[in-house]
Specification:
- With 182 residues, the protein is α+β, with helices and mostly antiparallel strands.
- Helix 3 crosses helix 4.
Amino acid sequence: MMQQFRERWHHMSKREQKLVLAGGIVLGLSLLFVLIVDPLLDNLDRLERQAVRKQKDLTELALLSQDYLTKRDRLAKVERRMPTQDQHFSLLTFMEEAATTAHVRERITSMQPQVQTLAQGYEETAVDLRLEGVQLPDVLALLVAIDQAPYDLHVRHLQMRPKFDNPVNMDATIRVLSYAKS
């Protein structure tokens, strides 16, 4: 086969030899590009896209880690302000004492406690307090007493409506929440 190729090569004119040689070079370069260079370039592009995506994921993970640490510290801070089981904190009793301190105990028309167990071993205690005929300074004194509680209490709902016959007096509804580990 090589012998036949050499014979044909010698029978070709110089111009034909140059054309066959140029075609062979173009074919060789094309095969080199198609079989080696192009797959390498595609692989390089794919790796660059993955690197950019991984860098973005890494940045997002760093932000999530920072957010997690912030929330974990906040949770630890809140848990330190929660009553423990051996302290026997009662939100209902505390609300009665706070109402006495704020001089609104005789204005209480109803006080309803509710206990709900939450996920992750927490317990939510709520007290719905209804007051009738109170004045704004008395409600503010009650809210200050709630705010100065030894534990973390939240006023979830506060609604005040003035009386029609005497707008200085109001009806108030307050929902106070307390959380504890169960």
